[in-house]
Specification:
The protein is mainly beta. It has one domain: Deoxyribonuclease I, Chain A, CATH 3.60.10.10. The chain contains 4 helices and 15 strands. A hairpin with a 7-residue loop joins β4 and β5. The longest helix is centred in the first third of the chain and has 9 residues.
């Protein structure tokens, strides 16, 4: 809920969530300022008074990838992609296979103006200079290389976890885009959340 409130304060037209509480049985979420569109382990909140038109398009990914085509009042178009890339859990145990990676990425990437963001759960020194040992980075690095995508972060840690009494931070929540949009994109990170993940803002 804090992310939705932060979005309202920032004047965001859209807020992309990963692992929303609606996954928990009997937990319903709503917000007066946003229209909520639920995927599997993703949810996209669209500001009710936005001047943009949003059309959701199915590109696979079993609900861990939400794709929206956006039209501005001027007629300009872009594509927004909400991603949660993580192993599925079955009976509390993580199974093999990440549904997000099964999405039809060649179709998703057909748009020139595209912004992809979310929780990538991938560790690499390409986007995190203080990266712990590289882990689960192959899919994202290959996607970026194949489609000439650039990571856009402000360098701030977006995730923290505590193991063996030591708190570690990492950059696993961020945006990627094509070079034609990267120069017009500003990002910032807000660590004031009730989650172990930060809120990351992108502004065109």
């Amino acid at each position: 809920m804090m992310a939705l409130e932060t979005g309202i304060v920032w004047g965001a037209d859209v807020v992309m969530l990963q692992e929303p509480y609606v996954e928990r049985e009997g937990y319903n979420i709503s917000h007066p300022g946003n229209r909520l569109i639920t995927g599997g382990r993703t949810m996209t909140a669209i500001r009710r008074d936005t001047h943009l038109e949003f059309l959701e398009v199915d590109k696979g990914g079993d609900g861990d990838v939400q794709v929206f085509d956006i039209r501005y009042p001027t007629g300009r178009k872009m594509r927004l992609v909400n991603v949660y890339d993580q192993l599925r859990q079955e009976g509390g145990v993580r199974s093999q296979g990440r549904p997000a990676q099964t999405a039809r990425w060649s179709e998703i990437m057909e748009q020139e103006k595209i912004l992809l963001g979310g929780d990538w759960n991938a560790h690499s020194d390409r986007w995190d200079p203080q990266c712990p040992p590289k882990r689960d980075e192959s899919f994202l690095e290959n996607l970026m290389d194949e489609y000439d995508l650039i990571d856009v972060t402000d360098g701030e840690e977006t995730h923290s976890n505590t193991r063996n009494g030591e708190t570690l931070g990492s950059v696993i929540d961020f945006f990627i885009t094509k070079a034609s949009m990267a120069d017009r994109l500003e990002t910032s990170t807000d660590l004031a959340t009730t989650s172990d993940h930060a809120v990351v803002c992108a502004q065109l």
